[in-house]
């Protein structure tokens, strides 16, 4: 069964473990969301609690990455302890190396490299933790200047993985990166069959390119629909349910990720599937793309 058909069997909300795979992240409100003890075991327990609750509510897509601390480890262990769970789709990403050493106050939390050597090393690490459960492997945070868009050796190795190959994007030029990726072929066939991009009511600029990706047959995964918490708090916020519903309302969106760090947040996020909303109503919230990404870059790791 193709990955898009498998995804259609579950909720259109997926669960990303970026917020609970490591002690430090840039989501707002983390001091209240997480226990004071952010030990590996405490964070593992929180991740497993969220996975249990998400699965019980019909969530069937789980998103991790090499740079999300121990997220792959937490997810892999959860899957091994629940052999009856055979109907989930697991996506991970390579291209960033986690460097914070389980510290919140690290100077550098992750280092980006899209070279073949990093791919080979991180693929081995991912396979060790997730084994044959890996369904989707994405290049993490591709921008138009990424060598991953032009490295034919890398493309050949990706094409031979035996899983769906995709990419995630970030930055003010997401649309350009997506369109460049759609043009990459190996043996006359498109290489990238999924795109994961930031789209939210503050930063909707990737929308037209994501529609093109959808029309080309790609799985489209929306990340940061709450703008790292900025649409869940603050005077101008429409709230998490409306923000996620706006993303779910896009005809090109296959999956919209929840980045919940608590059971309450997850329950609230999942309510987005029960309502409809017109994104045009919230058009006034949209920011210039460059300003959005500058503001995001200033968010503290907490």
From TrEMBL:
Task: Give the highest taxon in the source lineage.
Answer: Bacteria
Q: Coiled-coil stretches, from where to where?
A: none
Q: Name one Pfam family in it.
A: Aldo_ket_red
Recorded hits in Gene3D superfamilies, A to Z, give:
NADP-dependent oxidoreductase domain
The record's listing under CDD domains reads:
AKR_unchar
Q: Start and end of every NADP-dependent oxidoreductase domain?
A: 47-236
- What is the name of the protein in this document? Oxidoreductase
Q: What organism, scientifically named, is this protein from?
A: Paractinoplanes toevensis
| Lineage start | Bacteria, Bacillati, Actinomycetota, Actinomycetes, Micromonosporales
